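Researcher: Next entry in the queue.
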Amino acid sequence: MVKINKLDENNMTSVKFCVHPPMEFLYAMYDTAKEEELYKVYEEFNFTPDEEMKNIIGEMRGQLSRYNLSELTYFFYMSETIGHILPSFIMYNPNVINVEELISIIENSDEKLILFYLVKNIINENSIEYRKGFNWNEARDDIPKMIQLVKDTDINNIDIKEKLLECLDNPIETKQRYCMMIRSFYERAFKPIEEEVLEKLQSIKQKYERAFMENPEGFFKSYFKMEVIRCQIHVSYFKYTAWFSYPAEDIDTIGWIVLGIHSDKVFGKDAIRERVNKFFWILSDKKRLNMIDLLVERPWYGHEMAQKLKLTPATVSYHMSFLLELDIVTFQRDENRLYYSLNKNKVEELFEQAKRALLHRGF
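Model: Structure for this entry, 363 residues:
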């Protein structure tokens, strides 16, 4: 992705907000394939999806045959974005905004191109040593070279490596399976809800777009923890919260960021102010300050800390619950003991957010 050094009028237009049907189609498949894992991720953000979303995912799963679901699971197991196959086709077909049209392009593509995207991105995601010096263009139309590359690469999940080699050994069958999977999912599961979901996203897209225009640098720092870059931002219902980026693959493509519709509740101005308020409230108590002071030096066992501070174990546990809620403190069990550790990076981040909130910087 290309970093923007100066936010003049031309650079402002280098960030484009959109509601992109093929990208939303991708995340609908992701949510359906990884429903249980998805909810665990939301728990990490202390965020609970509403019943409407759960019902929509349930409806999509209900429209698929057992075979469709197994194929969805197979491809998503290898790579969470199906080997970046769909994002790669989206990047290299920027004017295609119709899902059926994009599927047709994939169906009419050579199986070598589909496998190339699969191999390249699985290695990028899973290899212990990413092959930066490798000339990827040499392998683009050469399946034997792709096979040798995968065999020579130390991929940290041997099961994924074996499945990838299986796909490369059966290129035509892999393409047929992949195309049948995305075609079936679109026609059975996504198409019936597509119009409703895309319409829902339009007003939310405008909300994020306005927030960006008010303060581009603050928006990128709050939501993405980075400087403003040239990209397209797709506002996604099925991403729901948080974000994911697809960097530009070369100078002829533009990078993408997928931003969940409820990300403002986690990364936005109001969410940050709420965390800062709670952080100051936590620091206002002398007992909690003393606990933090002890944890600066080393992890402490709960009963050991209680004895040192002349408190009851229940009191330590009570105050620790507030520190844990903001991720200021983490814990680890060692047999029957619970050891608390200070998350120094989180404390520094909260102080930085407090400075920005109080001085109205970065919002």
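Model: Residues 1-7 have pLDDT under 50 and may be disordered.
Researcher: Noted, moving on.
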